[in-house]
Design brief:
Beta-lactamase, about 325 residues
């Protein structure tokens, strides 16, 4: 049996001394984070979790939230509706580019970049329950994310307000989407949901369980609760693989070979279907918005455990 615990300890010790990268200072609250934080976690599809480092430190999901809200939109509307408004192609641009719309349709290229995630957020709507109560969109998102972790999650209000106050670029993207009728008139409500999903606070074990739920065909591996319909998991993992690492997606596929999604908080998760979810957190990020320690750690895990999906597996 693989000694996951010692493997994570070895990789953590290898990259902990690194000080490469910088904090995401354009979000003021993220500029206050301790740059030395570093944690790694693996959760297998049979519900075993192995972790090392600052496992009790909390951070916000940021863009690692995007695949999970995309999955909610798929369950609400189905892929045909969703992809009339958001494409499925890698953009080749930075995650926050304002020019990342297709020429003819004016759709965002995919749900993993900011424009696509804002369009997806606009698809998540309030629901009227049988008792005539309104199940508001932000509660729906937060309850979904909580079920993925098997515990009640909360939104970090300081980060949410910090993002909302400084989100001039994302607000410009949203108005461009409205101009092309990709989203409706509820621009501020959709942006609020997007900022809130990015501001959900978790720890590294939570994130590895979220990733493992995707690896386990939409079933949370510890609670055994079915979160996503299996038919949508392929869509989610496929776009995570082709678009989750933004303008480095090609290099990531070549060098690492596992579906992965990063966020500017310093979080990265990887999905190995039928096997495990991997999560790494370290807040020092590179110019592409990826955690420097996180990228190196997942590369090593992939190599050590021979997880590259293009590697021929023994039968």
């Amino acid at each position: 049996m693989t000694d996951y615990k010692n493997l994570l300890k070895k990789i953590h010790e290898k990259y902990l001394p690194s000080t490469k990268g910088s904090l995401a200072s354009y979000i003021p609250e993220l500029a206050k984070i301790d740059p030395n934080l570093f944690a790694i976690s693996i959760t297998t599809v049979d519900g075993k979790t192995y972790s090392h480092g600052d496992i009790n430190s909390f951070f916000t999901l940021q863009s690692t939230s995007k695949p999970f809200t995309y999955g909610l939109a798929l369950m609400d509307h189905g892929p045909e509706f969703v992809h009339q408004r958001v494409g499925v192609e890698p953009s080749g641009e930075a995650f926050n580019s304002i020019i990342e719309l297709e020429k003819n349709s004016h759709r965002p290229f995919n749900p993993m970049i900011n424009s696509g995630a804002i369009a997806v957020a606009s698809m998540i709507q309030d629901k009227l329950l049988d008792n005539n109560e309104i199940y508001i969109r932000s509660d729906r998102m937060l309850d979904l994310f909580s079920s993925l972790c098997g515990k009640k999650l909360e939104i970090n209000e300081q980060v949410f307000l910090s993002e909302k106050k400084t989100a001039h670029r994302n607000r410009a993207i949203a108005h461009l989407l409205r101009h092309f009728d990709v989203i409706g008139n509820d621009i501020e409500e959709s942006l609020d949901l997007y900022f809130k999903q990015c501001s959900v606070e978790i720890n590294i074990i939570d994130l590895s369980q979220m990733a493992a739920t995707l690896a386990n065909q939409g079933v949370q591996p510890i609670s055994k609760i079915k979160i996503y319909d299996e038919q949508y998991i392929t869509d989610m993992i496929g776009l995570i693989f082709t678009c989750g690492m933004y303008d480095t997606a090609g290099a990531w596929a070549y060098q690492v070979g596992i579906p992965a999604k990063s966020g500017v908080s310093g979080a990265i998760f990887g999905v190995i279907p039928g096997v495990m979810g991997i999560a790494v957190y370290s807040p020092l990020i590179d110019d592409h918005g990826h955690s420097v320690r996180g990228v190196n750690a997942i590369k090593d895990i992939s190599q050590e455990l021979k997880l590259n999906i293009f590697r021929q597996q023994k039968r």
